[in-house]
Amino acid sequence: LSHIPSGDSYCLKAWAANYYQLVNRFENTLAAQFFGHTHNDHFYMYYDDANPKNRATHVAFVAPSLTTYSDLNPAYRVYTIDGNYEGSTFTVLDEDNYWVNITEANLKGELKFELEYNKKKTFGLKDMSPESFNDLLQRMLTDESLLDKYITYFYRNNVQLPSC
User: Fold this and answer.
1) Residue 43 maps to a domain
2) pLDDT tens digits, residue range 45-71?
């Protein structure tokens, strides 16, 4: 659990490079990585030798924020983790993302969070492994509607999405 993800531009490059090496060195020990800071809903991938053509080694989960910074709807994420029992892996099994339409909430005077999406169902993930997320990235390269869906959730249903 950390604040600034190593792939973020605010992270010091030398620290990020060392962290990347540690993640790969201890890929079989680390159960999951959770970050915030960016205010967006996304993930970062780790690969052998930091080369996306190589084997995917880890996923860094970056959760959305409850703040509206900057022009975003409040959101939060609930992870399902392989539980506390003998032989548990403590890995992420799934995630549900909740949001509130802040414009509507302000008009009605009521703040009501609703399920925005479930990661595995929405993106057709077999599981929450690095391989599945790498497969998602590959599919987004050729499936524009899938990429659009990812971008919509990245910006938490903001009606003023930045143009590409």
Assistant:
1) yes
2) 999 999 999 999 999 999 999 999 888
| pLDDT tens track for 31-49 | 999 999 999 999 999 999 9
Contact status, residue 95 vs residue 117, Cβ threshold 8 Å = no
Is 30 a domain residue? yes
Q: Does a cis peptide bond (omega within 30 degrees of 0) precede residue 70?
A: yes
The string of pLDDT tens digits covering residues 19-30 is: 999 999 999 999
Note whether residue 162 is domain-resident.
Answer: no
End-to-end CA distance of the chain: 31
Q: Range of 87's domain?
A: 13-154
27 lies in some domain? yes
Whole-structure pTM value = 0.92
Cα 102 from chain centroid (whole Å): 21
Backbone angles phi, psi at 4, to 5 degrees: -90, 120
Asked if 128 and 45 count as a contact pair (C-beta separation under 8 A), the reply is no
What is the tally of structural domains in the chain?
A: 1
| Rounded CA separation 49/162 (Å) | 32
Phi, psi (deg, nearest 5) at residue 56: -70, 130
